[in-house]
Amino acid sequence: MQYVALVYYQEQLIEAMSEREWHDLNQECLGCVERLTEQGHFITGRALQPVESATSVRRRDGETLVSDGPFAETKEQLAGFYLLEARDLNEALRLAGGIPPARLGTIEVRPVRELPPKDETGETS
């Protein structure tokens, strides 16, 4: 089963790091990905640019609304994700606990929901 591990932390903590600390954290993350890949758990993942580069899009009453920044104010910002293969939630939680930024913030783990297949008429079944 696939699980997404969403990495959240306070960007202020990252901004306060020295270049060396930031480099070391990134190297730890790369090592984590390497281990997860070797074990057959890592599918894909990406780090995100800081929240100040975000743009939010909403659709309300047929109108598209675009605004700078994230839609919701939060103490921690979404920094990236890991898409993991795990046999169950317990294994996914164990794997997420090994993601280095877990010690700086929160790793939210969610099962991936498969969408129903499209039928011949173009509608989902």
From TrEMBL:
Pfam families, per the entry: YCII (PF03795)
YCII-related domain: residues covered: 1-115
Annotated signal sequence range: none
SUPFAM superfamilies per UniProt: Dimeric alpha+beta barrel
Q: Where are the transmembrane segments?
A: none
Q: Which domain of life is it from?
A: Bacteria
- Similarity-based family: Belongs to the YciI family.
Please identify the protein, giving its name as recorded.
Answer: YCII-related domain-containing protein
